[in-house]
Amino acid sequence: MTSTTSLFSPVEADLRLLTENLKKLVGARHPILFAAAEYLFGARGKRVRPAIVLLLSRATIPDRQLTPRHRRLAAITEMIHTASLVHDDVVDESEVRRGVPTVHSRFGNRVAVLAGDFLFAQSSWYLANLDNLEVVKLLSEVIMDLAEGEIQQGLNRFDSHLSIEAYLEKSYYKTASLIANSAKAAGILSEVTAEMAEDFYQYGRHIGLAFQIVDDILDFTGSTESLGKNAGSDLQSGNLTAPVLFALEEKPYLEVLIEREFAEADDLEKAMTLIKESNGISRSRELAAHHAEVAVKHLNCLEPSECSEALVKLADYVLSRLY
Predict the structure, then answer these.
(1) What does the domain layout of the chain look like in residue ranges?
(2) Which residues lie below 8 Å from residue 85, measured CB to CB, with a gap of 6+?
(3) 0.70 surpassed by pTM
(4) 183-198: per-residue pLDDT in tens?
(5) How far apart are CA 152 and CA 166, in angstroms?
(6) How many other CB atoms sit within 10 Å of the CB of residue 191?
């Protein structure tokens, strides 16, 4: 399987610089928040979101030289993503992420909430300083979408009548909105046409949905070690994803288990077995593949380059995580 390191080789140096800049952007005025931020940004994340911003930026700048505003947009994108993860982990009471302790389990809930708030505030400040109203609007909408997605997920816990459409809407808010809108923002800073900026948005939207669907499949097929959390943890918390919703169409008893919130000792294990026996996982794979395919079609507007090729390969990488 292609690694993100080799995949993002055209912007590898940019991503290294990004990691250092992120720590500087937080500043040292608040030692405990700085410690939390340093811990966060030192974690071995994939940096997919800023990489997409940087690849699209380099693909659309005539001399391939990034402007400070493009670099700042990439950093803002990662700050917003990281802030949302910190808050998600507090809400979900997750003890580990990517195999390492979460911020709240290491520093406490109070620091985690403050660190998330601080990162959102800092990202908003740097966003305003880009002096581009359209970009400010796009990324401000993302922050609202993240909250909307978290609210929808909370309200729909253990709702066995949730539709695939509602699941995709929530997935857009929680995952795809940031990728889509930051991709479009990169195009706007490069002064591309409105049509091309919309193509970037659609690429980000569909690659984001594919990414989320794959993550949701891995919750059933991945090992605890590879997931960095217990397999089936989303299902146990009542977060019903594509594999579950498709399986419900075939396995009526699954609804009984979900409606009683896995109250009996072996309910969760029974539910996992029913899902794996159904076509839920294979249908979810098809759904992820569809969105990855649509994403790539929206890159036809770009001239061939190392950067555009990396963006195409990213779609293959997203799907390859399943195998």
Answers:
(1) 4-320
(2) 97
(3) yes
(4) 999 999 999 999 999 9
(5) 9
(6) 10
